[in-house]
Amino acid sequence: MNARCYNEVVDDLDRWDTKSFLSLRGGDFAQGWKIHKSADSVRRLLKPGQTYSKRSMKLAQLRSDAAALGKLGFEETTPPSALAMRSAETLINGLWEGCLDFNLEVSHDGEINFLFGDHAELFHIHIDENGILSFYCKRAEGETFGDDMSAGEFPNKSLLSFVDRRK
Amino acid sequence: MSNTNPFTEAHAIARLDFALIFQNNLSDEQRAQLALELQKHLDQFERLVENDGSEDEEPVIAFERKGEVDEVTEAVHIHGNYVHVVWSDYRGWAFSRDGAINYLRPVLRWIRDERLVLTMVGLAYRDVFFNDKPETYDTGEVLKIGSSYVAPKVFSSGKKWRHWLAWSDSNLGGASFRTQSTLRIEADLLSVGEDEATIHCTEIAHRQSVRWGHAAALMNPSDDDLRNAWDCAHRANHALIQELITDDMLERIGLKEGSDECSLLQ
Known about the structure:
The structure holds 2 protein chains of 2 kinds.
Chain A: H1 3-11, H2 18-22, H3 39-45, H4 50-72, H5 82-94, E1 103-106, E2 112-117, E3 122-127, E4 133-139, E5 142-149, H6 156-165
Antiparallel strand pairs in A: 1-2, 2-3, 3-4, 4-5
Helix pairs in contact in A: 4-5
Chain B: E1 4-6, E2 13-22, H1 28-41, E3 46-47, E4 61-66, E5 72-78, E6 82-87, H2 93-103, H3 105-112, E7 118-131, E8 161-172, E9 177-192, E10 197-212, H4 215-219, H5 223-244, H6 247-252, H7 260-263
Antiparallel strand pairs in B: 1-7, 2-6, 2-7, 3-4, 4-5, 5-6, 7-10, 8-9, 9-10
């Protein structure tokens, strides 16, 4: 038997034992589903992938920065609204792989900024208190921008093109 | 400060699984044809060598998509009488659900053309929490004391135990759906890494199979029918986790009010 194939099958811990479903009325439900486990597959579960880790770090930073702003209690500071937080999480979840290296800044008025690149060449995404997104891109050959969009409408292709050119 | 941490800095989810489950097993011919259509559709995925069904395993055809550093982010498998999408890189509920529907597009065409008979859909979450100083492990750092889903005995059962519960519910989604659920929780010590360091792992697997209360959706499920069924199961998982996990962990995995994860539930 092909060794790689064997590992893949064992690694599919999430397989559904549909035989138990089908015999449910016969009272087999209490026996539950089969559980497959091997040292290899458990080990694989023990570590999230690099992309997943990176994306999660950004989400965690967003949550902690927003919470910290909320705790300051100064009159002139406002934490991001629930709409802004939802948009920001949707944007981070939707960013393509390769576009997860950015600076995240939550401003004192609760707006959320994603900064790629540097002063010479930059890609700046901004989310306002209503969760509306706009972006601005400056490159040697000119500027592009977009506004009044939801996080789901963000043009990932433009950002990837910006990121790829800087590699 | 607790030494117990969720799977990532923002989520406990290690796997999220969307399944379409059929009335009958696929024939060899159907499997081969469906695999070809999926291969064409899943153009960012790699098709793996398939298992021949020996060693008491059912045959499986697998496709995997990899992320930046050769790590699997999503997988699609064809099994005997079901096809499922497993996310290893959780990207929020709506993104994952709609992505799964898109990946399963060729299978949905077969169902709508009456080449396959759908009996139910499945949704499974596997949440994981680690403690890299296992001598400090305390079940109460992950699970809420007093939850009706967990036997009180687990809180005095040390570092290694297994808990299992099953139930059915016919009142979800305004009685449009009937679900059967299992909850498996395992606490164990594991050796990891080259130095075989021992860590503690708490794994929570919540599996739900969802049937529609009316036959029309099974015969010709629209994308909205599927979204509704999976949303219903997602809400049930959310309610379970709220009752199961400590407030501190809920906050760390973003399941407090106002997060994107909660927006579908309001």
